[in-house]
Every structure is written in structure tokens, then in C-alpha cells.
Amino acid sequence: MTVNVGQLGQAVAVRPTGIWSWVTTVDHKRIGILYGVTAFIFFLIGGIEALLIRLQLFVPGATLLTPDQYNQLFTMHGTTMIFLAVMPLNAAFLNYFVPLMIGARDVAFPRLNAFSYWCFLFGGILMNLSFFIGGAPDFGWFGYAPLTDRQFSPELRADFWAMGLQVLGVASLAAAFNFIVTIINMRAPGMTLMRMPPFVWMQFVTQWLLALALPPIAVALILLTFDRHFSTNFYLAQWGGDPILWQHLFWIFGHPEVYILILPAFGMISDILPTFARKPLFGYTFVVYSGIAIGFLGFIVWAHHMFATGMGPVADSAFAIATMLIAIPTGVKIFNWIGTLWMGQTVYKTPALFAVAFIAMFIIGGLSGVMHASPPADLQQTDSYFIVAHFHYVLFGGAIFGIMAGAYYWLPKVTGRLLDERLGKIHFWLMLIGFNLSFFPMHFVGLNGMPRRTYTYPAGFGWELMNQLETIGAFIIAISFLFFIYNVIKSVRSGEPAGANPWGAGTLEWSLPSPPPVYNFATVPVVRSLYPLWGGPNDSRLSSTQPAAAPADVHVHLPKPSYWPIVTAFGLTLAAAGIIFGYVLTGIGVLVLLASIYSWALEPAS
Amino acid sequence: MTSFRNGAVRVGLILIPAALLLSACSTDPQNVFDARSDFTQMIADLFWQIIWAAIVVFVLVQGALIYAIIRYRRRANQGLPPQVHGNTPLEIAWTIAPALVLAWIAVPTVQTIFRTYEVPTGPDVLTIEVIGRQFWWEYRYPGNNVVTATDLHVPVGRRVVLRITSDNVIHSYWVPKLAAKRDAIPGHVNTLWFTAKETGVYEGQCAEFCGLQHANMRLRVFVQEPAEFEQWLRRNAQPAPEPTTPEAQRGAQLVLQGTCAGCHAINGTNARGRVGPDLTHFASRSTIGGGILPNTPENLDRWLENPQAIKPGNLMNVVVTNPQERQAIIAYLQTLR
Ligand code: HEM
Ligand SMILES: [Cu+2]
Fold first, then answer.
1. Mean pLDDT, residues B318-329 taken together
2. Which residue of A has its CA nearest to B116?
3. Which of A49, A392, A469 to mutate to test the pocket of ligand 1 (most atoms within 8 A of CB)?
4. Rounded-to-integer distance, Cα B246 and Cα A333, Å
5. What is the ipTM score, two decimals?
6. Average of pLDDT values for A56-63?
7. Residue A395 CA: which ligand is closest?
8. Per-residue b/e over B27-40, b at no fewer than 16 CB within 10 Å?
9. Residues from chain A contacting residue B190 (CB–CB below 8 Å)
């Protein structure tokens, strides 16, 4: 489709509407919105699962849930939060904002981008279908073999899990390649690597981690599928296999995965703090390099999840020291964020509140992480509630607080309307209090010997009070999100218009009108610094509204809508589902897949 | 607002170490700070060093953050703050600082790691095999013909080595006060060693999710005076005593000829099943069902009537519906001292 920007005011700026236009969209901004809405719904599902878990643990010996229901819920809670909530929420920001922040009109492969989204949606649906067909997975998000092998898990549950994850893995892998190419190739003139906003940098590192970490888990899942369906014995010790093989493969993926979840939030914070402190990010170069260092180190510490398996003193020591090393670049980041606030004049609008709370919560999660890095101490901590506390401080206190900061910061760009500050602050304070009430006591109850993943616990072990506080905290968190949902709905309907740059930020996306036009940049911007909108006579911090660049009379090429991505994703999911429902379906799925790839390849791109 | 926040911070800074110390002194049955063996003491000592390091870092960093938040918030329209981009000496300093803190805990960590793997040997060492089952623990005292379940008996003051494995899924043996934790992995043998400092009963629990009843895979360690322990060991090495009363004899018949013997072993009889716990000296054990109920006749009655109602998903699918038969079986089981 060729568009004459001179007439853009009428022609393309009138967005296509209707369901069909969303199904066939290849616009990175719409795909970002789809990711965001879908992932948020999954986040609510995961949250409801968490509330049920917490209700069951309110008193010792509760019978609200059967053991089987409990085990399904904690497994799906973990799996959902990681793969269907936090990862795709990050992907929402990735899709919507990275092209805007690097001054691009779209991503490198727009149809592949749509394909990623549909794979994510179908993979998530496939996984959750298990609740209605024979029961959901019930062995924890780590899926340790041999509990997942057919001998100990004869039902379809592990197949749903393995196949769902494979499809989700394809989604992330496709997105990773897409964005690596986009970030390398499609930056606006003058945007050198060291002028990329920190958010883009951290997403760039994240996409590399995905590209390198997903293949090992794909292999692990294929071996599991072979064990379950074709009587191989990769993980079965009595036939010469080894369950520890699963743990190595899984954690070679699983540890980088933790950084996949948190690095984008590091990036968000690094963009948000300077805006509200009204000064540049302190030590930009160090923040970038420490992000890269964390990415590298993330690949050499996987066995710290396995200290209790008895790997021997040399392996334990090596992995302990490697793990402690990660604390150094992480510390550097934290100091730089504090350095950004230092001498600044921070305006505590809601995004800034979430951003500083992110730092405070992440410090706690980081410190308990260092405590796990010591194998002898870990012999008491691992698989206790202390671990549950630790990773929620990182994943909730970190990733979710970061994402919330990002949501309050960037949603006005997406919707064109500001969120309500008062509701935002209520959300913030309730969430902060609820979060700490829910998860801080878990440190104590864990050190007091309460194991995790147990559907009930005996009375008289000193665990009751803490569990009650935790459950109350969880409900406060849930209530806080009602304020968020209400706030978003209200602002979309009747929020104050945001204007191009409501916060006086310095990065490129704020030079566009809110919401940005379909074609993003009428004229490709030329970038001369890290904060192109700051400095100079029209520093947007001095005059908070800045006119968008006037459209010039040039031709913009926009990719055509296409339904092949969704058909291809459907074929792939069908092929995977065939492993669960019968190989005939796999056959059909493969045919659909091949036919749609073929049509996709022959379809003219614009 | 500011003073409220300052106050909250101060309260937090006092509260957290206080709560930690409080939980450290706690005598709750599974408190990890309440070390009652050389092994757990060694871990607790290291752990305290790490905790203090963590508290110091926490106070400093969180303090700096909160100070920056409060001190450098925007008050009135003041124009732009200085546009500082960074400071390399400062960056180098705060890269080195965490490295030093980490070195402070890395050295004792590595030393302790090597000590945890120094498994004691010698004639004085008591070695016990621990096997994780779904969902209970089996113990074997090699050379003594003693096989038991759930309750582990060890003498005080003597070195004990546990050789831990599993023939099904992965479990994890965890006795917080005595032995910390090691995984029980099919095809692998892991060791834990400890010397108990004082007699008593210590609670423990499977720590690696192992299926439906992971929550109720409990255990107990009885630390006894050496003489008492020897007596226990000698008694448990004997075959099961013959039943004497008619009711017990009828019970024995039901057990040995019925389905029970397919899964349970009773030394000295033809019951050789290996799926469930060995029942040779069942009456001397403190609990039934892998630690979930005290071993009393009433509880035994409930268990035999419907084990799935008490511990759904355990591998005992047999029910004894006839109350008289249950009474006879209970009478027999109670003779198994
Ligand atoms: C309302 C907020 C949340 C509450 C109350 C909550 C609560 C819990 C609880 C109690 C457990 C332990 C279950 C058990 O061991 O039996 C758990 C496990 C877990 N949670 Fe959350 N959680 C919340 C949000 C999150 C978020 C945002 C994430 C982030 C990605 C997350 C990731 C996990 C994971 C990975 C597990 C481990 C599951 C497993 O053991 O396989 N949770 N959660
Ligand atoms: Cu177990």
C-alpha cells in the first residue's frame, strides 16, 4: 500500500475498523495493543488462581480445594504468570514502542510479528483448555522429570503443558529474530547504538536471550514428548536415562528466562526515572553495559537452581561464585537509578511512584537472591516459602511494578488520554501495601520450615499467622487492580487529552501525536543525542507541549493487512494439539501450516 | 507526609532485624535457625554472616534510595536540575563495593561447601539408607536387617550418614533442625551427614514436589540415648512376633492371606510386598499414613476403612469394609512391636 503523506490527514490516518481489520493487522502498534490486552486477561486469570491458592492456605487443614485442584492451580498460576502474563506484557511494550523509539515506521517483518501474536494467543488457549479436558498440568512450572513422564503422569496434562509451551516458544522465538533485525537495521539516521533509549537496549538484550535460551527448552520438551509418546527413556533412570538431564536443560533456559522477564522492566525504569527527575539517566553507558553483562552471566548460573541435587563441591562453588557475580552489574544498575534521582527534581506522578517502588522491591529480591547463591544456606532455603518470597519480590515487585510504571507512563501515548492521577495513586499504595503484606512474611514462614507447593500444612508449626497475613495481602493486591482497570476504562472514555508529550520526556516516541498515526513518522527523524527532545530552545521540559513534525509530501510504504499469519499460527497449533488429541490432527495441522507458509511467501508484501 | 515516611522507614529498619532475631530464637518444630546438629549449626553460622551482610547492604542502599526520594523531590517550580550524565570514578567505586561484600560471603561459603561434602567414614559412623516413595519415607539400616518407615531413629552424639535415593520420582529429604536438605533422585545416591547434639523428636518433610500427596509426606527423627537406640535397633532386627490372642491370629490371617501382603512386608511371614511401608514393627511407630495421623487404634480404624479419604491419592487402594475384620487386623498390627 502506498500512501501519500500529503493527504494523510484524511487517507490513512482514518484507521480501518472492525474485527476483521484487527485479525489481519500487521501494524506493530495494533499488535502491541493485542498483546497487552490478551496478556492482561491472562494476568487476571493467573491472579484469580493465586487468590484461590491463598484462600486454601488461610488456615491449616483447609478443604476449600482438593489436593488435585490445588496442584493444578499452583502449576497453572506459575506457568500463566511467566509465559502468558509477564513475557507477553513485555512484548506489548516491545511491539508498540520499540519502533517508535528508534524512529522506524514498522518492524522488519510485519507479518511475522502478527504470526508471533497469534501463536501466543493459540498457545495460551491450548494450555488453558486442559482445565476443561481432563485436568490442567499439576507438576509445577518447572515440570521436573520423571514426574511428567507417562509412568507418573499418565493423563494428558503434561502433553498440554509441553505442546502449549512449544507453541509459545515459537511465538517468542519469531519475535526475537524480528526485533533483533528491527533494532539493528531500522534505526533512524543518527541513532547510533549508544543513542538508543535504555528501554530499547534492554529489550535488545532480552531478544538475544530469548533467541539463545528457547532452543534448549524446546529440546527438553521434545525429549519429554518422545518419552511420553514413543517410549524413549531420556529421563527415566531405571532404563538408563537421567532425570537430572531435564533439570540442566530446563534451567539453561529457565535462568535466562528470569532476566527475560526482568530486563525490559530495567529498561522501562531507566527511561521513566530521567523523565520525572528531569535529568538524564545517570551513567547511561554503565546501565547499558551492565545489562549486557547480566545477559551473559545469566547463561552460566543455571545450576544454582540445583544445589540440593548434590552436584559436588567444585560445581557448587563455581555456580555459587558465578551467581554472586551477577549481583555486581545488578548493583551498578541500582546505584545508577539512585544516581538519577540524586540532585534531581522528581515529580512523583504515578509512573514515578511505581518506578521507585520497583527499585525498593527489587533490592529486597536481589538480596534474598544473593542469600540463595550460597549453596549451604540454600540447603535450608530452597523449596521453602523463602524462595516463593524471593521470586515474587523479583517477578512481582520487579517485573509487575516495572510494567505498571510503564503502563501509567506510556498508555497516554496509546490512547491519547491521561489516566487519573488520584486513582493511580490509590492503586499504587494499595498494591505496595498488599504486596509487602502478602510476600514479606513468606521469608519468615519459609525460614520457619514451611515447604512450598503443599496444598495444606499442619497446625502448631508456627505458620498460621503468617499465612493469614499473606492471604489478606493478596486480596488487597486484587482490590488495587480493580482501581487500575476502572482507571483505564475511565480514561479511554473521558480522560483528559494527553497531547504529544504530557511528561516532558526526551525520547523520540513523544515527538508524535498521541495516539501516533498509522505511519508513525511522516518524515523520518534525524537523531543527534540520547534525548532528542531535550536541550536546545524547544526543550520539551520547558514547554510541555511540542508540535509534532509537520507531514511532508513523501510516499510512505505500509505493509498490507494479511490473514496468512493467523492461518499459519493456527496450523502450527493444530499440529501441536495433534500430539494431545490424535496424530491425525497433526497431519491436518501440518498441511494447513505448509499451505499457509506457501501462500504467505507468495503474497505480495505491499 | 515526610515525617510519616521517615517514621515508617525507621520502624521498618528496626522491625526487620527484630523479626529475624525473633524467628531465630523460635522453638517452632521446623525452624532452620534452631540448629540441633553439627551440620545445621555449620549452615546456620554461615547463614548469619550472610544475613548480616544483607541487612547492612539493605539499610545502606534502601536508605540512600529513600533519602534521594525525599530530599530530591520537586518542591516548587525551580527550573531544571543540573544535567549530570554520570561520573566514572563513582561508577568504578560502586562496582568494587559490591564485589568486596560478595567476597566477604564467598570465602566462608566455599569453605562450608567443601565441609558439607566431607562425608565422615569409619567404623563408628552409622549409615542409613533413605528411600523416597510416593508418599512416604523408607529407611534401611544396612547389616541390621531393619527396614522401617517415616520415623528415623538415631543415637545422640554419633555420626550419622544418610544415603538418600528414590526409585520413583524426585523427592527431597528435609529435617530443618538436624540435616538440612538433599534431593532423593532416581539413579543417584546423595549423602547428608550430621551428629545430633541432643535427644528429642525432630520434624521434617519432603521438600520437592512429588505428586498429589507431596504435602503429606512428613517424617520424624527420634534422637535417642545410645543405649536406648541400641535396644530399639535390636528389637527391630527381630522378625515379627507371633500373634497370641485368637483375635490377633484372625487378624494375621486376614493380613497375610488378603491383599495387604501384596504391598506390605512383614519380616518372618510370607508378606513380602514392597509398594507400601514394611509393617514388621509397625506398632512401634509414632504415626500412620506417612506422618499425618498419630498411630492409635482409632486412627488405624479410619485408615483401614478408607485410606483415600484421609490421604487422597496415596498408593493404598485397599479398604476393609467389615468392622469386625478391621478390629481383628488392628489387634494383629498392635502386636507388631
Ligand atoms: C496476586 C499476586 C500473587 C500471589 C498472591 C501469588 C501467590 C503465590 C503463591 C502462594 C505461590 C506458591 C504456591 C505453592 O508453592 O503452593 C506462588 C507460586 C508462584 N508464583 Fe505467584 N503470586 C502472585 C503473582 C505472581 C506473579 C506476578 C508472578 C510472576 C511472574 C508469579 C509467579 C509465580 C511462580 C513462578 C510460582 C511457582 C509455581 C510453581 O511452584 O510451579 N506469581 N504464587
Ligand atoms: Cu516427596
1. 92
2. A376
3. A392
4. 78
5. 0.93
6. 97
7. 1
8. ebbbbbbbbbbbbb
9. 309-310
